[in-house]
TrEMBL record:
It comes from the Bacteria. This is Transcriptional regulator.
Length: 147
């Protein structure tokens, strides 16, 4: 990795960390979408179909995957998705070292969930991240009741 890119990404991290949550969401929306579109979205869609299009079954079956896990916190309402390690290529290549980039992961989860169930209203919260000092990355998906 070049010294220039190392310095550039340090500034990138500082800039991201200075944004408010709404700005981070806007900034990382396309990043998260593109990441899963070129990566694992199809795997999640196939698993969802194989799970009978039932979220409880889908989240349990996530545990069959190598680095991803799922947990039912409250059946039909609240789920956790976990990653045993940071799967972000920018981190793996040594460019990013803080969890500012984890908004991209949160946005990718939102995008995948919307692709599985387009009418689903949900909230996705970052619970813990490896880059933030956690033992795993954990995101909570709360299904919102129809208004």
């Amino acid at each position: 990795m070049s010294e220039y890119l190392t310095e550039w990404f340090q500034g990138f991290e500082k800039g991201i960390n200075s944004l408010d949550q709404k700005a981070k969401e806007s900034f990382f929306y396309s990043c998260g979408r593109n990441c899963v579109e070129i990566g694992v979205k199809k795997v999640y869609e196939e698993l969802y179909i194989d799970s009978g299009k039932k979220l409880d079954t889908f989240f349990l079956r996530l545990n069959e995957m190598k680095t991803v896990g799922g947990e039912i916190v409250n059946p039909g309402k609240v789920y956790d998705i976990t990653f045993s390690h940071c799967v972000c290529e920018l981190h793996r290549q040594g460019y990013i070292h803080s969890d500012c980039i984890c908004e991209c992961s949160r946005q990718s989860i939102i995008h995948v969930m919307k692709s599985l169930e387009p009418e689903l209203q949900m909230q996705v919260d970052k619970i813990s991240t490896v880059l933030g000092g956690g033992k795993e990355c954990r995101f909570r998906i709360s299904i919102e009741e129809d208004a």
